[in-house]
Structure to design on (395 residues):
């Protein structure tokens, strides 16, 4: 196989990439041995690739990494809150959660665990109450009418109401008017 | 060059990268710099190839890396993280370039179509430019100047393939062009750079780069 200079120039890049078939490669190598011009083109192209591929050619400006890190820190790490900030955020969360629970308690009427009991009104949904797993009522801490003391759980009033527990007629009396 | 690629993309590095990506997705945003640190040079070089201005390139590179962080959940492991990152950088830089209407300033060579073969202009014996000369800032600047004088489409391909060591396929993907186009543009870019750097043509270095007559920068 004989190749002309034009063929060599067209394929020189692929040749350097190792992407020409063996027959063409042999023919090109033979051509380079005989043609000084094409050998010069090959050497120059190879030198160009070598020079620009050197990592010294991909330098970043002075301080680049530092500036980049600073910008990333500002945007990728959650801002640290002050104590006051945390308190405000916590209060807001409680308020939002409270209203959500209230809305749910108003909008949904779960099946009550006791046919005779009455559901309460205005029980703060975030209030922690005591229930017995198999019981029917929820109580405030220390209520003397808590039965089955072996299986007690502390949950929110909102959750207790969703699960059909009803307020204790003694300790939660004020919510049963 | 391929060795460097292996170091960056080797199995251990890739595993480490996967772990980092998972942890960042799970909320450890402060690890993101660790993830992109090996690529910051490449990202900057890719932005610079398009914008040709260091300040703009730095800003575009930073923005691209932030976009990568914000969209890290969209990264699919079937492509390399570096390719994905470069792709975002290319898009960011191109977008900025379009905004600035910089194409008006594009050198005439960019408007050459890809039809027809590029014919080398200088056949004089190539005088090797040794790698050691890259230690000298003026040599690096002259090479950068030659690169900057190429049209954008040639510059982009050359930078991604020959400077960033992306494969032909990855370069095509990053630029949204076919592998055939990558090959044609790469051939032209390499030959054009060779012609630009070849001594002796139209006065060679002395006229092109305003060196003292007859003197070379190395």
């Amino acid at each position: 196989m004989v190749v002309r200079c034009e063929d060599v120039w067209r394929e020189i890049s692929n040749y350097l990439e190792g992407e020409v078939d063996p027959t063409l490669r042999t023919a090109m190598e033979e051509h380079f041995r005989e043609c000084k011009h094409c050998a010069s083109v090959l050497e120059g192209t190879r030198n160009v690739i070598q020079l620009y591929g050197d990592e010294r050619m991909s330098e970043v400006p002075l301080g680049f990494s530092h500036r980049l890190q600073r910008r990333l820190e500002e945007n990728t790490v959650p801002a640290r809150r002050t104590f006051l900030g945390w308190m405000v955020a916590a209060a807001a969360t409680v308020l939002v959660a409270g209203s959500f629970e209230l809305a749910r308690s108003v909008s949904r009427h779960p099946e009550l665990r006791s046919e005779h009991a009455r559901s309460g009104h205005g029980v703060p949904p975030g209030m922690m109450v005591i229930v017995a797993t198999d019981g029917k009522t929820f109580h405030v801490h220390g209520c003397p009418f808590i039965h089955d003391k072996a299986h007690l759980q502390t949950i929110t009033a909102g959750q207790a109401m969703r699960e059909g527990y009803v307020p204790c007629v003694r300790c939660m009396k004020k919510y049963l008017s | 060059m391929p060795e460097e690629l292996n170091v960056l993309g080797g199995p251990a590095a890739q595993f480490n990268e996967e772990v980092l990506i998972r942890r960042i997705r799970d909320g450890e945003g402060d690890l993101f710099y660790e993830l992109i640190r090996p690529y910051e040079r490449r990202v900057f070089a890719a932005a610079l190839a398009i914008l040709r201005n260091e300040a703009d390139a730095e800003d575009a590179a930073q923005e691209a890396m932030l976009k990568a962080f914000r969209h890290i959940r969209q990264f699919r492991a079937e492509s390399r993280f570096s390719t994905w990152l470069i792709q975002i950088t290319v898009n960011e830089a191109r977008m900025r370039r379009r905004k600035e209407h910089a194409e008006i300033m594009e050198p005439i060579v960019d408007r050459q179509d890809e039809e027809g073969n590029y014919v080398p202009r200088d056949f004089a014996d190539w005088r090797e430019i040794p790698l050691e000369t890259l230690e000298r800032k003026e040599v690096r600047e002259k090479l950068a100047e030659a690169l900057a004088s190429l049209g954008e489409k040639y510059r982009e391909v050359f930078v991604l393939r020959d400077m960033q060591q992306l494969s032909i396929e990855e370069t095509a993907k990053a630029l949204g062009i076919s592998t055939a186009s990558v090959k044609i543009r790469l051939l032209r870019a390499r030959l054009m750079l060779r012609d630009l750097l070849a001594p002796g043509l139209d006065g060679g270095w002395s006229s092109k780069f305003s060196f003292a007559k007859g003197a070379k920068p190395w």
Summary: The helical segments of chain A are 5-17, 22-34, 36-53, 64-76, 83-107, 157-162. DSSP finds six helices and four strands in chain A.
